[in-house]
Automatic annotation (TrEMBL):
<keyword id="KW-0574">Periplasm</keyword>
<comment type="similarity">
    <text>Belongs to the metallo-beta-lactamase superfamily. Class-B beta-lactamase family.</text>
</comment>
<feature type="signal peptide">
    <location>
        <begin position="1"/>
        <end position="24"/>
    </location>
</feature>
<dbReference type="InterPro" id="IPR036866">
    <property type="entry name" value="RibonucZ/Hydroxyglut_hydro"/>
</dbReference>
<keyword id="KW-0862">Zinc</keyword>
<dbReference type="InterPro" id="IPR058199">
    <property type="entry name" value="BlaB//VIM/IMP-1"/>
</dbReference>
<feature type="domain" description="Metallo-beta-lactamase">
    <location>
        <begin position="58"/>
        <end position="229"/>
    </location>
</feature>
<dbReference type="Pfam" id="PF00753">
    <property type="entry name" value="Lactamase_B"/>
</dbReference>
<keyword id="KW-0732">Signal</keyword>
<dbReference type="InterPro" id="IPR050855">
    <property type="entry name" value="NDM-1-like"/>
</dbReference>
<keyword id="KW-0046">Antibiotic resistance</keyword>
<comment type="subunit">
    <text>Monomer.</text>
</comment>
<protein>
    <recommendedName>
        <fullName>beta-lactamase</fullName>
        <ecNumber>3.5.2.6</ecNumber>
    </recommendedName>
</protein>
<keyword id="KW-0479">Metal-binding</keyword>
<keyword id="KW-0378">Hydrolase</keyword>
<dbReference type="InterPro" id="IPR001279">
    <property type="entry name" value="Metallo-B-lactamas"/>
</dbReference>
Length: 250
């Protein structure tokens, strides 16, 4: 079953409301945070940051709902955007976020950690991510995650967290929701529209292909793949990313 994108103000129960419109700190913050239902349990949130060279750049994260609560995977770019995401989960979805997990220490994934902490929501990231967050001027999560490369899986409710080693960054996690065969690849997975790997300043390009291979091996049943930037699609995004990696290395 396909779920349509939810972008503006509607009267449906799961629409974007005025609570989702964060105060502006730059022109991209004028764009309301967007929500799209990907499965029965999973919503994608998309927020924007303006870069002079590229214009408004979208970044994705997830809200995974179960029972009376939900789990946040990655923040918005800013505290204001993240407040809008948390408000929406509480007020519109009626399943407030009680735990938050961050997939790597870049602004598009951990820029709103402060907003999450301010609500006494438990925050988690790889120990390496928390170290890099401090080095990058970001707030770290309160709790460290310890995962061996390509081996361990941390199961949190409906979500399995897996560390395939360095790719887009040295600390990138992926998240998998088995009941929906949904993989959140974050920024280690490129969208179908991508022509190159994007920002590789903190990348482990030589391990990137291996990292994708480890993800495919660990989670062989994948129907929906959510990249860190751009539209969700199917498992072909994993293949697409490997092509781009090999092209970059060659």
């Amino acid at each position: 079953m396909k779920f349509p994108p939810i972008r503006f103000l509607f009267t449906a129960a799961f629409c974007v409301t005025t609570a989702s419109q964060a105060p502006a700190s730059d022109s991209a913050d004028m764009i309301p945070v967007e929500f799209k239902q990907l499965s029965e349990s999973v919503w994608m949130h998309t927020s924007y940051k303006h870069y002079e060279k590229f214009g408004p750049v979208p970044a994705n994260g997830l809200i995974v709902a179960e029972g009376t609560q939900s789990i946040l995977i990655d923040s918005g770019w800013t505290d204001a955007q993240t407040d809008a995401i948390l408000d929406w989960a509480r007020d519109d979805l009626k399943q407030p976020v009680t735990r938050a997990y961050f997939t790597h220490a870049h602004l598009d994934k951990m820029g709103g950690v402060g907003a999450v902490k301010s609500r006494d929501i438990e925050t988690y990231a790889l120990e390496l991510s928390n170290e890099l967050a401090l080095a990058n001027g970001l707030q770290p999560a309160e709790n460290d995650i310890h995962l061996s490369v390509g081996q361990d899986v941390l199961s949190v409710g409906l979500v399995d967290l897996f560390f395939p080693g360095g790719a887009h960054s040295h600390d990138n996690l992926v998240a998998y929701v088995a009941k929906d065969s949904l993989l959140y690849g974050g920024c280690m997975v490129r969208s179908a529209a991508s022509k190159r790997l994007g920002n590789t300043q903190d990348a482990d390009v030589l391990h990137w292909d291996t990292a994708i291979g480890l993800v495919k091996q660990r989670f062989p049943q994948v129907d929906i793949v959510v990249p860190g930037h751009g539209a969700p699609a199917g498992p072909e995004l994993l293949e697409r990313t490997q092509v781009l990696v090999k092209r970059h290395v060659d």
